Amino acid sequence: MATPKRKSAIPRCRRCQIVRSFLMAVAMLAILAVVAGQKLGVLSGVTPMHFALGMMAVGALGFAFRVLDWRMTRQSNDDQ
Predict the structure, then answer these.
(1) Using the 8-state DSSP alphabet, how is residue 80 labeled?
(2) What secondary structure does DSSP assign to 9-70, as a single string?
(3) Nearest in space to 43 (alpha carbons), one of 33, 56, 31, 58
(4) What's the Cα-to-Cα distance from 79 to each of 56, 66, 71, 75, rounded to whole Å?
(5) 40 CB contacts (<8 Å, ≥6 apart)?
(6) Cβ(40)–Cβ(33) under 8 Å?
(7) Is the pLDDT of residue 32 over 80?
(8) pLDDT for 78
(9) pLDDT of 2 higher than 70
């Protein structure tokens, strides 16, 4: 028989959730590196610069989306 989960009296901190998810991702990458071994040779061409450029591209796209969303929301609020 399953017992109901109790609600925590203290709400989870957003910063703590981010740190925990980051640590979980790092742990999963470490496990993947150990388990996959030689099969990761395909990724040998990926350099830190490629990774940094990819992060910048994703950030720029996210920023552009947020600006467009903000302008559309502001425009619809002005029409009302």
Answers:
(1) -
(2) SSPPPHHHHHHHHHHHHHHHHHHHHHHHGGGGGGGGG--HHHHHHHHHHHHHHHHHHHHHHH
(3) 33
(4) 35, 20, 12, 6
(5) 32, 33
(6) yes
(7) yes
(8) 79
(9) no
> Quick one: pLDDT at residue 55?
93
Cα-flanking dihedrals φ and ψ of residue 51, to 5°? -65, -45
Q: Name the one residue in this structure whose structure tokens are 């709400």.
A: 11
The residue type found at 1 is M
**CA dihedral of 24, 25, 27, 29, whole degrees rounded to 10:** 160
Give Cβ neighbours of residue 33 (< 8 Å, ≥ 6 apart): 40
CA 2 remoteness from chain centre: 32
Single-letter amino acid, residue 7:
K
